[in-house]
Amino acid sequence: MSAVEAKLAELGLTLPEVVPPLAAYQPAVRSGVYVYTSGQLPMVNGKLEVTGKVGHEVTPEEAKDLARICALNALAAVKSVAGDLDRIARVVKVVGFVASAPDFTGQPGVVNGASELLGEVLGDKGVHARSAVGVAVLPLDAPVEVEVQVELEERQAGPGQALNGA
User: Domain Endoribonuclease L-PSP/chorismate mutase-like: where (predicted)?
Assistant: First the structure.
């Protein structure tokens, strides 16, 4: 078990399986030392348990918890292409989309759910730049969606090994 997954367990969390794509995209793509996740919905066991607009059907507190689930799903997507979450050098950027009632302006507080989880799990490596955007609707009527960009530590080649960053 990686140190990151051990920290998740210490927090009472388990890294989920990668959420299968809902359309024509990959959950995460690696380019050099960076991993970019697609937008992650708060899917649990293949289901979206809460739907609706934040500030109307969904409370900001519920949405913040859903953003944590999105961040967990993003970590699973990162692991799927990086192989090991301990390779994360830092989280570079988080973008959170919040399906908002017309008068709801608390998007930053909702996306804090994702940011705080990344900080709890990764410590200083989880500190990142961020955007929190209110939108009219998200896929499947999800209340929140989060995408993450991480930088991986470059691996050093050992004797007789090629250095390919993998």
Answer: 5-147
